[in-house]
Amino acid sequence: MRIDAHQHFWKYDPKRHDWIDERMKSIRRDFLPGDLKPILEESKMDGCVAVQAEESLRETEFLLDLAEENDWIKAVVGWADLGSPDLSKTLEDFSQSRKLKGFREILQDKDPRYMLREDFIQGLKLLHSYGFTYDILVFPTHLKAVLKVVKQCEGHAFVIDHLAKPYIKNGEWKEWKKAMLPIAERDYVFAKVSGMVTEADWKNWNREQLLPFLEIALELFGPDRLMFGSDWPVCLLAGSYEQISGLVEEFTDTLSAHEKSQIMGLTSSKFYGIT
Question: Among 13-17, 28-32, 209-213, whose mean pLDDT is lowest?
């Protein structure tokens, strides 16, 4: 099964999607299943994982409704306030949704200490008790805190989105690799090969700039803990879906057929429990 493990849907609202700034005017519009389906079919993808882009339970329900209406939306990563005293009730309610597989928060916009709070850690442990995964969206400056978090949640199912957004535009990989290494040593932490082109120069990136980061990700996590994600429609700021998927397709062509299949869908199917 070939799965795009990371993409978004939204009905654009300037207040709710205020993170889409002036540089991103081209994606200030609705992006819905009807827009993505033909693209996935063209790329021979069997389905996708819809990931939250807004911190609200309303959006989680919106994504779940889309997933129920479209069989090819195989899983949803929603949002919940992990520090909320009502978290247990929220998870109990959502546990009835067969396609809700995990949760995410926009940690990249928060101080690294935010995720070290006791109530946040307890929230992660509660997620795990319900069988939910957790997507970690951070910058390299958060990785020391991420290591502390995953150490306290041994055996939980974590995936680092966009390889923690390394500074591709500056060509800096040594410190990023150093910070990722002890995290990757924990076999319950996975990573998404996604969001790379938007961390590069949007107009002038090339394969050679991205290749070192792909090679390091493969070295650290291996194909059994790496998963492809397009980050559509955000990726459109820097390239077409075909360009983004083609980059990873070409890179994985150097691997065995099974290893390529892992990165292009088997790993995400296993991680999110997609059947």
Answer: 13-17
DSSP 8-state code for residue 32: -
Q: Which residues contact 259 (CB under 8 A, 6 or more apart)?
A: 223, 252
Six token digits for residue 23: 């540089």
* Count of helices and strands (H, E) across the chain: 10, 8
Percent of the chain at pLDDT > 90 equals 96
CA distances (Å), origin 173, targets 148, 197, 214 = 21, 15, 11
- Give the residue among 210, 4, 234, 221 at the shortest CA–CA distance from 108: 234
Q: Is 208 exposed, middle or buried (0-12, 13-18, 19+ CB in 10 A)?
A: exposed
**Rounded CA separation 135/158 (Å):** 6
Place of tokens 């309303």: 58
171 has a pLDDT exceeding 90: no
Q: How confident is the model at residue 275 (pLDDT cuts 50, 70, 90)?
A: confident
Domains and CATH numbers, the chain: 3-272 (3.20.20.140)
2, two tokens: 């070939």
229 within 8 A of 7, measured Cβ to Cβ: yes
Estimate the crossing angle of helix 207-221 against helix 241-252, to 10 degrees.
50
Cβ atoms of residues 32 and 76 within 8 Å: no
pLDDT in tens, 55-75: 999 999 999 999 999 999 999
The type of residue at 116 is L
pTM of the model: 0.96
Helices (H), 43-139: 57-69, 87-94, 118-129
> Which residue is listed with tokens 């926009």?
106
Compute the Cα dihedral for 103, 258, 72, 249 and give only its sign.
positive
